Amino acid sequence: MSESVLTHAQYGKDLVRVFRVVRQGDIHQVVEYNVTVLVEGDIETSYTVADNSVIVATDSMKNITYYLAKTSPHILSPERFALHLGTYIVSKYAHINRAFVTLEKLRWSNIPLSANRDPHPHSFVRDGNDKQTVEVEVDASAGKDKLSAKVTSGITDLLVLKSGGSAFHGYIRDEYTTLVEVDDRILSTSVDLAYTFAPLSLSSPSDLKKLNFTIPEDLAPGGIWDADNVAIRARNATLDIFALDASASVQATLFKMGQRVIAENAGVESVTYKLPNKHYIPIDMKYIGLDNTTPANAEVFVPVSAPSGLISATISRRK
């Protein structure tokens, strides 16, 4: 079998579900993550000669995730928690040189009470199906004292719709064109947004157990250490532009969204949107004497899930 060689190896634990309650007196905060942990390093022999001595069990990776979920002071920030988790793994295991941590954060918000202005201190509601995402790579290949990281964050499953203020015309018309040009239509999509921060260096843990994770004192706005606020601004930019833009096309609206995310966050290097069209087709009621197909009179629609357009682009910071 000399004609074959192992060229890449990676393994880990997928779908680790974590829910954490942080109690500050009577005020509680909660966070729920779906976590994936993958590692690379000097693990080739586990594949090539059945040497299990180089394997950190995936069950151990799950337990490490739970341990840090309990002990890390950064649990409420998905970027910081993912960086802490990745840093610990590459620091603890000498033969592991890269850790990849992916998080999905589910939405939970304190329930607002009708009787007063303050939300309930320990009751929560799932106030949306969109999820915050984080992908972290912690790299120790240059040495355990020279850690670096890459971070991409974003949003998935953010379902939006506007019932007017969107046109589509002036596109190529040929023998295959059946789509009718419109100056007003329903525009709906499920936003998939990913924004990538500038690469960063990390401090190596200074304690014997390698559990410490140091945050720099100089927290520049719009960068990775400001990621919680970046997430808020990116979501607001997406929703504001979607709602307010007199859309000539999904492509044009997408570009404006990306421009604003870049402009408002100095540490973000690039932004990628994937926007599938959610089509709403007006019902033809001419058979009963009603006009429901011209844009001004279209009021009854059938949602169509497939086939659908898929518009994607990456907007990068000018060098």
Radius of gyration: 24 Å
Number of helices: 5
- The share of residues in helices is 10-25%
DSSP summary, beta strand count: 13
Enumerate the spans where pLDDT stays under 50 for 5 or more consecutive residues. Answer: none
Query: What is the overall pLDDT average?
Result: 96
Shape: globular
Order of helices and strands: EEHHHEEEEEEEHHEEEE
- Residue fraction in strands: 35-45%
End-to-end Cα distance, whole Å, is 48 Å
> How does the major sheet shape up?
9 strands, antiparallel
Class derived from helix and strand content: alpha+beta
Describe this structure in words.
The chain has 319 residues and is of the alpha+beta class. The chain contains five helices and 13 strands. Strands 1, 2, 3, 6, 7, 8, 9, 10 and 13 form a nine-stranded antiparallel β-sheet that branches. Strand 4 (109-112) and strand 5 (119-125) form a beta hairpin. Helix 4 (227-244) packs antiparallel against helix 5 (250-264). The mean pLDDT is 96. It is 21% helix and 36% strand.
Which short descriptors sum up this protein?
nine-stranded antiparallel beta sheet; globular; two-stranded antiparallel sheet; alpha+beta; 319 residues
Can you give me a brief rundown of this structure?
This protein is α+β, with helices and mostly antiparallel strands and 319 residues long. It is 21% helix and 36% strand. The longest helix has 18 residues, at 227-244.
